[in-house]
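Title: Comparing notes on inverse folding

I've been comparing how different people in this forum approach sequence design from structure. To keep things fair, I'm posting one structure and asking everyone to reply with a full sequence. Here's the target:
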């Protein structure tokens, strides 16, 4: 088992030398094996370890004994120990979710908070091949796509899973060989939730009657799905810049329709995530409906999406809007910090400002630069106003005509940010840049601005 785990970690970069690791430990055999394995590699890989236990308040005295067991074991082995706790039954009832979901959310919030507090690199969990197989089967039954079937990755952001390639029985044998005691959570043996019923009833029957190597087959499927997801992600990154404008807020219907069906779905997923709408609430039928909407509908069409979002088509571009958005509500004027980052939540963007000594070589539609010394006063962002004009190489153009020529829908025009200084329009991000305040041989300081789309809502991993 040891050689397999080390091979797996090297191949996938799961645990890296010199890292600080928060080790999630329930006290069960899986997590105790993880603590022991990392402890044995601590000196060789120069690891910093903190063992973290979360007490869910579900099993009363037994749960408190689990915490005391892990704390005592850490003290005996001179390991840093931290504990968090919450009354999960009360939180689950208040939120209207299952105990399992509420416990997971609180546990990961505690682990991530601890990681940030310590300045550590990753959170290590003891998920193993049997857990992976359960996850794949559960998502398969739910009708998941390729992304869902990829299930848990060896290393995903700040989460590291060194044991994904080994079976649970191997971890139990490892603990027995090292003389490591472990706690047993009796709730794992109760068929009172989907995952437990799947593990206790469905998987044993499938292994017994259909495929004794079911775990290996499902883990193989997860690996293939992850590889396909990685490939599709690369293809989406290649196409995405040409498929969107306005910082990823609008998707080109023409570019979308040119792609093969598999890439269309991946492109839609990326667009929804970039636009802040996320994908957790969207099932297969939602994606198919949205794909058909782009393939067959025209300007003025719209459809509702889960989570209070609406998709609209206008002049060959798909844009997302919140259904409750009040188009007529005036947006505020906001000063821009120079240098610094200004969050413009009402516009769904932030602007980063820097002072440079040399002109940028290449800039995109979401970037702007000018001679800082030529600005008449501080910068501000506001919506368009009557009479606004922008100075272009071919002459002055009203913002009204600019928006019409750029096929910006009438209802969107009052919500587009405009960068101004002393009433002069310098830039309409994503559309046009003014020729005012140009950089020349006498320029001392160059102002560089970059617009970034801000997330509207997020989801944690399933």
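Reply #1:
Here's my take.
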């Amino acid at each position: 088992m040891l050689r397999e785990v080390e091979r797996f970690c090297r191949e996938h970069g799961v645990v890296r030398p010199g890292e600080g690791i928060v080790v999630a430990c329930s006290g069960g055999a899986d997590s105790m094996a993880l603590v022991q394995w990392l402890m044995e590699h601590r000196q060789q890989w120069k690891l910093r370890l903190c063992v973290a236990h979360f007490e869910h308040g579900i099993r009363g005295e037994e749960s408190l004994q689990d915490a005391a067991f892990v704390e005592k074991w850490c003290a005996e082995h001179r390991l840093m120990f931290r504990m968090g706790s919450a009354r999960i039954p009360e939180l689950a009832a208040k939120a209207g979710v299952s105990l399992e979901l509420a416990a997971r959310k609180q546990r990961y919030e505690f682990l991530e908070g601890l990681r940030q507090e310590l300045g550590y690199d990753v959170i290590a969990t003891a998920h193993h091949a049997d857990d992976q197989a359960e996850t794949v089967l559960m998502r398969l039954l739910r009708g998941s796509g390729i992304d869902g079937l990829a299930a848990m990755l060896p290393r995903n952001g700040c989460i590291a899973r060194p044991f994904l390639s080994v079976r649970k029985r191997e971890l139990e044998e490892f603990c027995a060989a090292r003389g490591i005691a472990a706690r047993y959570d009796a709730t794992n043996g109760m068929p009172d939730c989907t995952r437990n019923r799947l593990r206790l009833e469905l998987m044993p029957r499938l292994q017994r009657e259909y495929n004794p190597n079911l775990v290996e087959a499902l883990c193989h499927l997860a690996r293939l799905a992850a590889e396909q997801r990685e490939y599709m992600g690369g293809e989406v990154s290649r196409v995405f810049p040409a498929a969107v404008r306005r910082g990823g807020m609008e998707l080109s219907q023409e570019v979308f329709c040119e792609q093969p069906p598999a890439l269309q779905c991946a492109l839609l997923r990326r667009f929804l995530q970039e636009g802040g709408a996320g994908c957790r609430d969207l099932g297969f039928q939602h994606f198919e409906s949205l794909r058909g909407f782009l393939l067959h509908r025209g300007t003025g069409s719209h459809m509702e999406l889960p989570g209070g979002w609406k998709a609209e088509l206008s002049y060959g571009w798909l844009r997302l809007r919140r259904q409750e958005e009040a188009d007529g509500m005036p947006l505020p004027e906001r000063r821009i910090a120079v240098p610094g980052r200004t969050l413009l939540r009402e516009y769904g963007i932030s602007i980063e400002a820097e002072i440079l000594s040399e002109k940028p070589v290449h800039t995109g539609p979401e970037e702007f630069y000018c001679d800082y010394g030529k600005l008449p006063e501080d910068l501000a962002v506001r919506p368009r106003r009557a009479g606004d004009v922008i100075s272009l190489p071919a002459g002055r153009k009203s913002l009204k005509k600019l928006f019409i020529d750029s096929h910006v829908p009438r209802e969107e025009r009052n919500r587009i940010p405009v960068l101004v200084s002393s009433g002069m329009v310098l830039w309409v991000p994503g559309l046009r840049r003014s020729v005012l305040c140009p950089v020349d041989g006498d320029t001392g300081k160059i102002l560089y601005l970059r617009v970034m789309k801000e997330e509207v809502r997020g989801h944690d991993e399933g």
